[in-house]
């Protein structure tokens, strides 16, 4: 409802959020291959293609100081990804669960009279370590990069 409602919700004197009544639904096609290795490790390979991708866009007013956020349809978004999940038992009281994601995103859009073709390779690593502590307690240390 808020994405379509054409009025501005003011967040402060210089910014707000406005709905876009011309917003169209996005359509996603996805393919994923998954493989479990040695009962514990998981490998996922995937691809998705989204047409009319809905994304937040910041629009500046004529004063070039104030603006608002609104959702617009971008022409296309493509995503290729590799995901690896690896639980590792370091010792009786110390286990690690590693989750590694590498993805390539591509955005194609015509916005504000300009054509944008943007692509990036990026990744994320999430490592959660669980420790057994005295008195029947456990602790967890999580690292995200």
Task: Walk me through what this model shows.
The chain has 145 residues and is mainly β. It contains no helices and eight strands. The chain has strands spanning 8-12, 15-18, 27-37, 41-60, 67-91, 94-111, 114-132, 138-144. Strands 1, 2, 3, 4, 5, 6, 7 and 8 form an eight-stranded mixed β-sheet that branches. The chain is elongated.
Write the layout of secondary structure elements.
Elements lengths: L7 E5 L2 E4 L8 E11 L3 E20 L6 E25 L2 E18 L2 E19 L5 E7 L1
Parallel strand pairs: 2-5
Antiparallel strand pairs: 1-2, 3-4, 4-5, 5-6, 6-7, 7-8
In summary, what is this structure?
The protein is mostly beta strands.
Percent of sequence in beta strands: over 45%
Overall pLDDT score: 92
Give the overall silhouette: elongated
Number of strands: 8
Largest sheet: 8 strands, mixed
Rounded to the nearest angstrom, the distance between the terminal CA atoms is: 34 Å
Order of helices and strands: EEEEEEEE
Q: Provide the helix percentage.
A: under 10%
Label the structural class: mainly beta
How many helical stretches? 0
Radius of gyration: 22 Å
Spans of 5+ residues with little confidence (pLDDT < 50)?
Answer: none
Structural features:
single chain, 8-stranded mixed sheet, 145 residues, 8 strands, 0% helix, mainly beta
């Amino acid at each position: 409802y808020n994405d379509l409602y054409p009025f501005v919700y003011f967040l402060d004197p210089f910014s707000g959020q406005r709905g876009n009544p011309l917003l169209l639904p996005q359509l996603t096609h996805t393919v994923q291959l998954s493989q479990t290795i040695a009962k514990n490790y998981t490998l996922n390979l995937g691809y998705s293609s989204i047409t009319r991708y809905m994304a937040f866009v910041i629009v500046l007013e004529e004063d070039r100081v104030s603006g608002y956020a609104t959702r617009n349809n971008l022409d296309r978004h493509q995503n290729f990804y590799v995901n690896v999940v690896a639980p590792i038992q370091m010792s009786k009281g110390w286990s690690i669960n590693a989750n590694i994601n590498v993805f390539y995103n591509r955005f194609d859009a015509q916005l504000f009279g300009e054509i944008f073709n943007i692509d990036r390779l990026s990744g994320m690593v999430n490592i959660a370590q669980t420790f057994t502590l005295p008195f029947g307690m456990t602790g967890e240390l999580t690292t995200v990069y």
